[in-house]
Amino acid sequence: MPIIYYDGGCVYCYNFAIWLIQNGLSTRYQFATLKGSTGQQLQREYPAARRFDSVILQEGDHLQFKSDAIATLITSLTNYKWLGVLIRITPKFIRDFGYNLFANNRNNMWKTHWHKPDDYEQSFFID
C-alpha cells in the first residue's frame, strides 16, 4: 500500500490529508506522520528521506517529495485530476518554490482548526 507521510504537527498538512480522503482518495493509500514509528522506519530504510520535513509519498521503493507528491495525489482524484495535471506541467523549480514558500510561512498564515475525523477518515491513518 502506498504511504503518505506528513508533518503530524501541521494543521494544514493534516487537513490536506482529510481533504484528499473527502475527495475520493483511494483506500489503498495510508497516512503516517514523519515523526511516528512508520516515519522513523522510512528514514532508517531511505536515508534521503531524512532531508525532508514535508510530504513524502512512498509507493514501494519509489519516493516522491514535496510538489511531486502533491501533484501525484491530486491527479489521483477524479474531480481534481485537471488540477494535478496543471501542477505537474508547471516547472518543478516553480512548484517547489511555491511549496517551500507555503511551508516556511504556514505558522504565520490564517488560523484554521484540526478536523475531527470520522471513522472512515480515521481508517486511512496508521500512526
UniProtKB/TrEMBL annotation:
Organism superkingdom: Bacteria
Gene Ontology molecular function, alphabetical: protein-disulfide reductase activity
InterPro entries: DCC1-like (IPR007263), DCC_oxidoreductase (IPR052927)
Xref: Pfam families: DCC1-like (PF04134)
Protein name: DCC1-like thiol-disulfide oxidoreductase family protein
Organism placement in taxonomy: Bacteria, Bacillati, Bacillota, Bacilli, Bacillales
